[in-house]
């Protein structure tokens, strides 16, 4: 189509713009041939009634008429417009129907007879009718062709004699009969006739508003691959002519091409046309940007569509200059050659002058303004070859290799270019085909190694290509070819298929000529660490290289120390956390503990020293200063903490393996761990979770495993309260006076405590407004003066404030705070020097916490602190013993001589040690519980004042259900508000937590037993006591009488508290056991057993009335047994037995007896000291109480 229209004149862009804007002045400046093409539209504008009635259009219309007055062809167009188009439309519709009936005959004979028929009817009306008939015929053929391209020959569209007249008629008919001749259908039909592009441009030029509609219609109906067919090429040429006529819309039309995924050749052709008109020579051309966007964009459909265009274009046997693909490749090659260095020395680097500066290259380099364009071209060629399957010609391959081995300037763009070039060499090794090219590549790689340090220092880019070289070398040495492929794809920014076999030659060059493994490790240690390493620094860094070398154990294999480099890199970190840091620490720890090979168990890396670790935490571990040392960031401190905790955990996990290899790496001392402010750092990390990535969660996991006493739930809840909204409001109330109080002033205020409490109260209140970290300097003064707060007369507000400040400090420095507090609360004994306990002492023996001053047991705020520490040290002791068990696991391992032939018995000592540890922990926990229960008992002094340990349930019941006198109510309130009651509540809360955490503790404590006076308190105050119902049957089955008595008494209280079906079954079991014991116990044991347990039967009946009959029968049976044993005293016993029978038969007549104190106290007939007599009286009182309870409905 391009060649067939070369002799015809097209509408110029100037003329089309004038028509589009109806610029009469511009139209007047057009030549006669240009104006002739636009006459159909101009004549219609001049003759038809306008919609615009303004004065300005009237003037423009006069100018148009003046312009047309001198053109002879106007008369013929006016004659065409004088036809009755309505009648013409009706005739055309009839003829169309007739054509459908005679389609086959007409299809064969129409064009043959058309010319003679035309001359026979030469009037204007008939001419227009037959032109219309011809156009409709072609349109119908196109619609019925089912997408198959055809070409119709007609002299009207081919002979120069008829072209102008045919164009005029076409424009007039389309404008007057748009329903019969839709412009998109006409445009589609014109593709099937000769000179169709010329007719199409004239048609659109006379209807300029239809440009976008026509272009979109042609593209939408076009082929997916336009270069493959004649119709596709004609469509592409027609659209190119349209875009040349209206160049401002060319890029918009290209966008339609990409949107529809049709006519890829058109998109490239339009881009080539646009590129030729670009003024910028140094920047990245529009062709490079367009093709790169298609292949590297996110739209997979577009990528596949354009890749198919490239592949199909290459499959054609011979490409000529008319092929769009050939033109694109040629243009890209010209752009590539245009930025290549013009002078290139043939000397190799070793022949260079030794006095030449290291940054002066023997080869001439790329200009700085060409580097970005060169990088874009490299990525484009990678996409063309890797994604679209382009096979470069020899010329393209040679020029690409010349560009890749160029030497860019030391700029960030230059670093990027070198990285891309290197990855392209790895991805497309076929570009290097001759020995000369291979030598050129080796020289360039050697230059990269030599110039890497200069590039990094000059460009200011931390992620330089030197790290990538090291990384690729390490991958080649470890044969991780898939990792190299991932690295190449990541650097190029595209997913391309690279066969591992294609890397074999590059592997040989790297491992044997450029980078041996020893050279790699030696060079890696000398690479400087990345300053302020964070996730914001992208690319390949030294840390990636060190990580891979650690994984492959290259450092230990060649005895290269890497410890100092890793320590320096950890110290040079900042937020957001780089994702490679945690894997680096993990693999470094593994290289410390695990030898590289069994044959050389000493081939390990060295751990970081304790002094280096302490240096990181300077400024945090001291009590005098809370400001962090600016030398190390919080990120560095958290990473070192992660290293220490992970190292200790890995050391314990690998104890057996290390013992088998007779290796014992050094563990960090407990004194070091005590000096690291773990909780303070964890709290800092909590506020930086988004920036620290997975570091915070990893630290929490290590903390929960190795330091459970720092993960107490209450502490986290307290910390949430301290850091919440209330804390923010308190900070707003912070005054300068509160900030000015020093620890020395607080000490002076405590010294004046016996005389005045005002000053210390004021300072303490001000301190509550400070944050946890700001309170650290006051911790020592606060704890050292706690002993003074135990004296009588200290206001409760001071005690509560001290408790509050202690809890705040506990969120940042718990371990050190606990040690100071335990030492401060020791009992003060004259002439006896107090022992200073350490953290290790308290973890070994947590019960030291309870060996405090006895006054603490009646000071609830300080007792709360003591219980908190006790809970923490009990947890710490468990972790300490578990760690100790793992550390000393090899001590009890049987020798090799003894284990021969004893398969399956080597783990027996380990099981024994585990059981001993569990037994020790159980004894420790139960001892703590027993001591706490003992604290709940009132002292002799408190008993003298009438304090009862079970006053809580009794007093609460009496206050709620009975209307007692005012005096009794006041006494009950005094009991409820006393210090003992508050301490009991605190202890019950702790015991509840311990029972829930480990129900075996509850079982062990109750099997040991405790004073029965505490049963009302424990059952009512410990919500988890219901778990005792599970083991009471086992406790009742014990042979010891005391345990059986304790079990029945405990069960009686549980039945009242938890009236459940399970409690009923256990109570029924207890009644049956009591009946069984009645038949086997001796007289002395019977008295000892039933005297304390008979009152429990009342509780059983109160909780479960269905047990009434069984219990009454049991009581009568007990009375009869007692009576039979004292036959000599029948005169004393018979009346009692008689009354028991009467009570059982007529209980309502004896219901009032319970009001008699003698029945309640069992003091009737106390003259007889016989145990059976006393037991009978107790039975009588029990029965009467049961009867009265059932009758009164209680």
TrEMBL record:
Keyword check for Nucleus: yes
One cellular component term from this protein's GO annotations in UniProt: integrator complex
Domain of life: Eukaryota
InterPro entries named in the record: Int2_metazoa (IPR026236), INTS2 (IPR029321)
Annotated keywords: Nucleus
Pfam families on file: INTS2
GO biological process, one term: snRNA 3'-end processing
Main location group: nucleus
Protein location: Nucleus
Family: Belongs to the Integrator subunit 2 family.
Entry protein name: Integrator complex subunit 2
Species whose genome carries this gene: Loxodonta africana (African elephant)
Gene that specifies this protein: INTS2
